[in-house]
Amino acid sequence: MTDQDKTSDVSGINGIQLKCIIEAALLAARQPLSLAQLGALFTDDERPSGADIGKALEQIENDCVNRGVELKKVASGYRLQVKQGLNEWVSRLWTERPQRYSRALLETMSLIAYRQPITRGEIEAVRGVSVSTNIIRTLQEREWIRVVGHRDVPGKPALFGTTREFLDYFNLQNLDDLPTLAEIRDMENLEPELQLEPAAEVEVLQESEIEVDEDEGKVPELEEK
């Protein structure tokens, strides 16, 4: 019996079967799966330990080295995705030309990501131009930003911060994974990678309905049990 077979032996689930179950779940899921969600696939009698699940994930990652997909850990958990180097060919499955974001939207998103929590007025002060309401609405509909509080100044302007959906979309585990400002030479170099998919309708709350977060603008750490 190999080490892979010994990964798990709970109620008849051996290492190979555990790996297959997790791989199938990651393929079927439409979003990243956390360790807790992967553990919930099993009944109490057959549930493997967190260590066993971790070993199975490591084996899946190793198996993908010479394949067209890769196992990626992002803020919300783990997912299987097409390797970025193959996007040129895979994107030909869709005949419609991907819609690109404007430079104004990218600059606004970058300021929120790097200077959060930040108000709309502070974004306008840096860019030197007003921020279109459509830009803020688009970012909120994409669930990339949210109101995390309000600045304690006259008018109580909303403070914006990023979300886990933002981290997941850009293959980030946390904000520390963002490239440094020195590494960003040209915003337009990022633009071809940002393909717009149909955004789900999102209810945008009025400022009066939003409570102030204690951890203003911070993305909570992922709890994995």
Key features of this structure:
single chain; 225 residues; alpha+beta; Arc Repressor Mutant, subunit A; three-stranded antiparallel β-sheet; two-stranded antiparallel sheet; elongated; disordered C terminus
Quick overview:
The chain is α+β, with helices and mostly antiparallel strands and 225 residues long. It contains 8 helices and 5 strands.
Please explain how this structure is put together.
The protein is of the alpha+beta class and 225 residues long. It folds into two domains: 5-93, Winged helix-like DNA-binding domain superfamily/Winged helix DNA-binding domain (Arc Repressor Mutant, subunit A, Orthogonal Bundle), CATH 1.10.10; 103-209, Orthogonal Bundle (Arc Repressor Mutant, subunit A), CATH 1.10.10.10. It has helices spanning 15-28, 35-39, 50-63, 87-90, 103-115, 120-127, 133-141, 164-169, and strands spanning 69-74, 77-82, 118-119, 145-150, 158-162. It has a three-stranded antiparallel β-sheet with strand order 3-5-4. It has a two-stranded antiparallel sheet with strand order 1-2. A hairpin with a 2-residue loop joins strand 1 (69-74) and strand 2. Helix 1 crosses helix 3 (50-63). It is elongated. The model is unreliable at 190-225 (pLDDT under 50).
